[in-house]
């Protein structure tokens, strides 16, 4: 019963521990993956825009070179399209930067440079427009000079921005790695803490069960004690009430035990008590409950047993006690036992049954010891009480 309840608690603790650990792992894993996705997505968008924008200064340089060498008007058209695209790109990057988590101080210089580029665009557009209208050469020096300024400004700003994003994303990655490590350590600590608490609870429960068991066990003989027998009797009475099964009780007291103590010493007396306990356990069935009530007095509760069964067992015990070898210096001593036995035929509980069996034991003592006195029913005790000793010893046979 105790072992089963301990096992049950252990199983429940293991299930609770596994559940908590799984939930923690899922929650933290979900959080980390969410954080990673979020940060990754922010920088990916900005980096993509910057990579596209970096194509503008490259295209501008190629177009300006082509204009310088071939003077072809088609390059004026290309330049015109490019100048229409550059401000939109700058504005888009400016907006993305403001929305990003980057420190504004880190990209303030870039924005200034882009603003300067924007301020040069109208003059360049005007020169291109004039050349398109035939008011100048396509490879005009003014177009080339303004175009180179714009190209250099854009190339510098976008390459700085690219560098800044690389740095920010490297820092972010590092941060995420530290965060992941911290969460893993946290999870480990949490699991260890939960494990420790579980262990402690389990240990406390076992300790309580051990103490409970100890408070119901006789230290010398390892048998149950009076309290344990009372609990067992309550269960047996409950079974008797529900199923109408028989129930008998036997009280046993060693005869003249004081003489053993006096003659051979208390330790020998202890050894005799322990040996006698073993004899009792050997003689009873598995369902019988053997207890030491105190001193040299023992009791046997016999569920599903009628008085005849109790008497038969009592006779076996009387015989086994007489032939029980005593330890060391007491080897020559012959031990005997007096027994009272009753069967419960009323539902008056353990105390009543005990008082009846105690009376039988008292009679066994006063009528000469080394004998059994039994009673079939409380109401007929006076007439049906029977005092006798096992066969083969007529001197101790006393009948009513
Ligand atoms: N060695 C030992 N002796 C015990 C223990 N408990 C009680 N005793 C002794 O048991 C003896 C009981 O003595 P009594 O009550 O006079 O009973 P008795 O000598 O057996 O005589 P009857 O019961 O009348 O036959 C006492 O000497 C107690 O000291 C124990 O745990 N160990």
Automatic annotation (TrEMBL):
<keyword id="KW-1133">Transmembrane helix</keyword>
<protein>
    <recommendedName>
        <fullName>diguanylate cyclase</fullName>
        <ecNumber>2.7.7.65</ecNumber>
    </recommendedName>
</protein>
<feature type="domain" description="GGDEF">
    <location>
        <begin position="245"/>
        <end position="377"/>
    </location>
</feature>
<dbReference type="GO" id="GO:0043709">
    <property type="term" value="P:cell adhesion involved in single-species biofilm formation"/>
</dbReference>
<dbReference type="GO" id="GO:0005886">
    <property type="term" value="C:plasma membrane"/>
</dbReference>
<dbReference type="InterPro" id="IPR029787">
    <property type="entry name" value="Nucleotide_cyclase"/>
</dbReference>
<feature type="region of interest" description="Disordered">
    <location>
        <begin position="372"/>
        <end position="400"/>
    </location>
</feature>
<feature type="transmembrane region" description="Helical">
    <location>
        <begin position="12"/>
        <end position="32"/>
    </location>
</feature>
<keyword id="KW-0812">Transmembrane</keyword>
<dbReference type="Pfam" id="PF00990">
    <property type="entry name" value="GGDEF"/>
</dbReference>
<dbReference type="GO" id="GO:1902201">
    <property type="term" value="P:negative regulation of bacterial-type flagellum-dependent cell motility"/>
</dbReference>
<dbReference type="GO" id="GO:0052621">
    <property type="term" value="F:diguanylate cyclase activity"/>
</dbReference>
<dbReference type="InterPro" id="IPR043128">
    <property type="entry name" value="Rev_trsase/Diguanyl_cyclase"/>
</dbReference>
<keyword id="KW-0472">Membrane</keyword>
<feature type="transmembrane region" description="Helical">
    <location>
        <begin position="179"/>
        <end position="202"/>
    </location>
</feature>
<dbReference type="InterPro" id="IPR050469">
    <property type="entry name" value="Diguanylate_Cyclase"/>
</dbReference>
<dbReference type="InterPro" id="IPR000160">
    <property type="entry name" value="GGDEF_dom"/>
</dbReference>
């Amino acid at each position: 019963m105790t072992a089963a309840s301990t096992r049950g608690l252990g199983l429940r603790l293991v299930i609770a521990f596994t559940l908590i650990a799984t939930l923690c792992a899922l929650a933290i894993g979900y959080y980390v993956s969410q954080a990673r996705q979020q940060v990754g997505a922010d920088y990916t968008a900005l980096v993509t825009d910057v990579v596209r924008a970096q194509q503008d200064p490259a295209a501008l340089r190629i177009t300006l070179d082509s204009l310088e060498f071939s003077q072809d008007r088609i390059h004026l058209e290309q330049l015109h399209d490019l100048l229409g695209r550059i401000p939109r790109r700058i504005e888009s990057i400016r907006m993305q930067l403001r929305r990003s988590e980057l420190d504004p101080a880190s990209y303030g210089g870039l924005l200034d440079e882009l603003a300067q580029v924007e301020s040069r665009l109208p003059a360049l557009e005007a020169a291109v427009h004039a050349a398109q209208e035939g008011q100048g050469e396509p490879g005009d020096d003014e177009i080339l000079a303004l175009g180179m300024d714009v190209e250099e400004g854009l190339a510098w700003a976008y390459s700085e921005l690219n560098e800044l994003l690389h740095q920010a994303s490297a820092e972010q990655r590092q941060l995420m790695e530290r965060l992941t490590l911290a969460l893993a350590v946290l999870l480990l600590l949490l699991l260890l803490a939960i494990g420790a608490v579980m262990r402690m609870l389990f240990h406390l429960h076992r300790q309580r069960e051990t103490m409970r068991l100890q408070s119901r066990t006789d230290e010398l003989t390892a048998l149950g004690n009076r309290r344990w027998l009372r609990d067992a009797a309550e269960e047996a009475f409950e079974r008797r009430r529900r199923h109408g099964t028989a129930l008998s009780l036997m009280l046993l007291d060693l005869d003249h035990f004081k003489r053993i103590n006096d003659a051979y010493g208390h330790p020998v007396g202890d050894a005799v008590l322990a040996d006698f306990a073993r004899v009792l356990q050997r003689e009873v069935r598995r369902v019988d409950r053997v207890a030491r009530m105190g001193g040299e007095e023992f009791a046997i509760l016999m569920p599903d047993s009628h008085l005849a069964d109790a008497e038969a067992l009592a006779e076996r015990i009387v015989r086994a006690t007489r032939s029980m070898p005593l330890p060391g210096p007491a080897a020559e001593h012959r031990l005997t036992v007096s027994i009272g036995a009753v069967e419960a035929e009323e539902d008056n509980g353990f105390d009543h049954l005990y008082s009846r069996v105690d009376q039988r034991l008292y009679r066994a003592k006063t009528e000469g010891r080394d004998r059994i006195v039994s009673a079939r029913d409380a109401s007929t005790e006076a007439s049906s009480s029977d005092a006798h000793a096992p066969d083969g010893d007529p001197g101790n046979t006393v009948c009513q």
